Amino acid sequence: MRRKIVAGNWKMNLTFPQARELALHLNTWVNAHKPNAEIIIAPTHLYLEQLNKDLKNSRIRVASQNVSAMENGAYTGDVSAEQLLSIGTKISIVGHSERRAYHHEVDKYIGMKISHLYKKGMSPILCVGEKLEDRESGKHFDVVKEQLNIALERQNPEDLLRDFIVAYEPVWAIGTGKTASPDQAQEMHDFIRKTIGNQHGLAVANATSILYGGSVNAGNARDLFEQYDIDGALVGGASLKLEDFTTIINARG
């Protein structure tokens, strides 16, 4: 059964006191309002251990923004799945467009990250999405299909059935204020689900929660969530403001 999920990617924002205050206030709100959606927050690696402790008995899951594809060794600055797991983190974003653009991560390497997470009993949030020139040239479906197929080609369907989340984030809509229309987003989410189904079967496709990301805010969330294949959102800037983030969570219903 597809889960309703609202995740906040805090990126490289907030000092530790600010992040902890936001997380604790969010937890208080969740306890009071008991939303139907699953809530995930992804702070910087530095804050994961303490926020995992603070939210140990919470309904909020704490995710990493990234993970290494390597198990251990001479990889300065990287963080392994085992290290994340040792401080209570069981889920990680992989393949975010900023990692692809600034760190030159390719689909095969992203697939290695997913395999490594599952090997350690963890789970991924796989980000996919096209650039503006891809959409304008009509190649957006081809780009997203390739990202999915290469990243997932070696994955075990049983792992994907256990806990697998995809976030569709059109690169041209991330941090730009531009948002895919509900129809555009639904069209791509439907395509993603069918692509997963063709590769790993209908059971995996129907169990995968597909989130929309790309300038999601309190004003457009409800229209996006009304689309059949949009199961939730991966929220950037709006997740840094408690009122905006909780409004989006409420919109998910």
Automatic annotation (TrEMBL):
Catalytic activity: D-glyceraldehyde 3-phosphate = dihydroxyacetone phosphate
Broad class of the protein's primary localization: cytoplasm
Highest taxon of the lineage: Bacteria
EC assignment: 5.3.1.1
PROSITE patterns: TIM_1, TIM_2
InterPro entries: Aldolase_TIM, TIM_sf, TrioseP_Isoase_bac/euk, Triosephosphate_isomerase, Triosephosphate_isomerase_AS
Pathway membership, UniProt: Carbohydrate biosynthesis; gluconeogenesis; Carbohydrate degradation; glycolysis; D-glyceraldehyde 3-phosphate from glycerone phosphate: step 1/1
Bilayer-crossing regions: none
Record keywords, A-Z: Cytoplasm, Gluconeogenesis, Glycolysis, Isomerase
Cellular compartments annotated: Cytoplasm
One Gene Ontology term of the molecular function aspect: triose-phosphate isomerase activity
Active-site residues (renumbered): 96 (electrophile), 169 (proton acceptor)
EC main group: isomerase
Family: Belongs to the triosephosphate isomerase family.
Entry function: Involved in the gluconeogenesis. Catalyzes stereospecifically the conversion of dihydroxyacetone phosphate (DHAP) to D-glyceraldehyde-3-phosphate (G3P).
Subunit structure and binding partners: Homodimer.
NCBIfam families: tim (TIGR00419)
PANTHER family in the record: TRIOSEPHOSPHATE ISOMERASE
Protein name: Triosephosphate isomerase
Species this protein is from: Moheibacter stercoris
Gene responsible for this protein: tpiA
